[in-house]
Amino acid sequence: MPLTLVPGSGRGRLGTTKRVAKKIRQRSKYYVPVISACTNASRSRASSSPRCGSPTPPKLTPQAMSYANGLAHLPPVAGLWASAIPALVYGALGTCRQMSMGPEASLSLLMGNTINELIHSDPHSTPENADLEAIAISVITTFMAGAMTTVLGLLRLGFLDVVLSRALLRGFLTAIGCIIMIEQLVPLLGLAPVLHAHDDPPSQPLSKLVFILKHIRRANIPTTILSVCCISFLLGSRLIKRRLVKRPGGAWLRYVPEILICVVTVTILTGVFRWDLLGVDILGKLKGGKEFPFGLPLYPRSLKYVNETFSTAFVMAVVGVVDSMVAAKENSTKYGYPVSPNRELVALGSANLVASCITLTGTVPIFGSLTRSRLNGQIGARTQMASMITAILLILAALFLLPYLWFLPRAVLASVITLVVYSLLDEAPHDIIYFWKMKAWTDFLQMTGTFLLTFLFSIEVGVVASVCFSLLLVIQRSTQPRIKIIGRRPDSDDWVPIDEDDEAREEIPGVLVVRIREPLSFANTGQLKERLRRLELYGPNKIHPSEAPRRDEAKAVILHMGDVDDIDASALQILGELVQSYHERGVGIYFAHLRQDQLDKFRLVGITDLLGPHHFHPDLRSAMTEIESLGYGNTTRSRYV
Asked: Where do the STAS domain residues begin and end (predicted)?
């Protein structure tokens, strides 16, 4: 039987294929932004990518090594690999074009504390293969932090970054800065041998500070002098750059890598003059350079730490997400492009999942840095290619730089961390003064409480307490219905809140007119009865309930429902109980500006039958006319009847 061709069938299939291909291209550009960056970027943007990507590694390389070695207690090269590989992943998936990925001081410190608690909890015995155990802890913690962040993004919970207020975040970061400063006093003063030789080395910040002050006379003099010189150079360079960069012709100073200059200079001087023979602690041989650093993150040695590191991973995910979202939103606002919080979470989580595969040297959770992202924007980064170029340069540094760092003193790495501590503590006085001027005592107490909990107990306690307190504040504010007593302006039909307009004081004695300014739900309706009672007795002013009432009890209440877009079933039940309560007290309750669909709901729950149709009016004028016809407010000449 001959084959019969349907006219146009091949053309239809071809058209369908083209539409599918077009949709795939559109979706791929959306979910993998680097594709759009490569195809749509202008030639000027593309040519600027190498230029804007190159100044970041000189700053990030010493920082990453310092964080890994000085805070996380991992090999310095772990910081390089952990900064490079996630940056490649984020560059492909992230939506913030200026984002700079890398280890952060707070997360690195948290990782180091976790490793110390799990491995070195007994100061009298060190477990076999302690380095491998530390790597396993870092790998599984990073894996779980990445998995949690990814799940948050897939569940479209990108709004959770607003949970931590600025006051709580400032208190946490200030405490972190103080803890890091105390931790770094040991390598800065060359007291590491003294600390390790102690029978019961302190672990808490206060006890460690007391230990340092007690043994300050045993500090290594050459190490102390070197630390003072490095810190003075780094802080002095930063202050000079801040002043000169604003002057004409001084913009180029922004690109001067003072950290790299310090590291290279001191390393050369230490090798030439052999300061290590004077007691200056140096890095020595570093492993993991040209070896393949990747493996599966879930292996027997790492899996045994899942339960012990779960809470730490959660804390890291929360802090990292908040910091990263602040950086993403700031840059997107400044440079005029949108960012998707949900896709940001997926990108950050994916980056950490890939980072957890660095099983040779260990890793730390990697998130965005606000300060380095600002630098990226200032030097011209306009696409995600800047992040990927930075990653490539860091990989080259990890492969070929390590042999030249034999004589790098650990005190220099501690000095680099001290510079970061200065940045963490720099904004605290400004926030304290701001809260004091604004009389924001709640914010001030939040900041102080978070600082004390984090500093005196632990980072985990500080973060968990901050998150719980923030959630309680959100719940407390969401359960308070937004209602206002409104009054009519003289010689008009305009009704405004009487605490916002001095002229809106014309009130009918015994009649309370209240405007509800949000949808009613189970969350905010529960407090409606108490709020109405307080307004009825005390008015709009904040007066303690122990004082005598400032107003007579209302004889009638009018609820302006014009701003109530929705009323859920639970709110209707509570509202019915409220109406029943007023009805039993003999107080007339009236509704104005109620929509028809809401009136139908009132009829279903029996509110309409209880009150009668004359209690529902299309506007306030009609409601006031009804009330005055019943004898309320007739002491003055009526404007309604």
From this structure: 501-627
